[in-house]
Design brief:
The protein contains 5 helices and 5 strands; from the N terminus they run αβαβαβαββα. It is an alpha/beta fold and 125 residues long. β4 and β5 form a beta hairpin.
Length: 125
């Protein structure tokens, strides 16, 4: 009984689409007219980002109401800068940004990133 309280949920392999070219942001916008898109900006040099990503991946459910996109912002800082400019939001890391119909409908950063909240917002949009 106690073991179930302390057991760790295994990390789910997310169906990430990796952002590695700026022109993919046009595809993000197009996709967001069919289903909300989540941009997850991750810093590979930050322990808070690593913890947040791990927690997010453990919480992820396959029937998520959004399409998940992943950005390694250390490797692709140009894309991160373009996201901030294109969508008019301040850069943070880690950062989760929900896009619907080509516009930001919600964003959060650091330990406030929560799968259940993001999924709920995506379902309502």
């Amino acid at each position: 009984m106690l073991s179930s309280l302390f057991s760790k949920k295994e990390k789910v392999e997310l169906p990430w689409t990796h952002l590695n070219q700026i022109d993919q942001l046009n595809k993000v916008d197009e996709a967001s007219y069919k289903k909300p898109v989540l941009l997850f900006k991750h810093s590979t040099r930050c322990s808070i980002s690593a913890m947040t990503l791990s927690r997010f991946e453990r919480s992820f459910q396959e029937e998520a109401a959004f399409e998940p996109y992943f950005l390694d912002l250390i490797a692709h800082r140009d894309i991160s800068n373009e996201i901030a400019s294109k969508y008019g939001i301040k850069h943070e890391s880690p950062q989760a940004i929900l896009i619907k119909d080509g516009k930001v409908i919600f964003h959060e950063s650091h330990t406030a990133i929560n799968f259940d909240e993001l999924n709920s917002i995506a379902q309502r949009s």
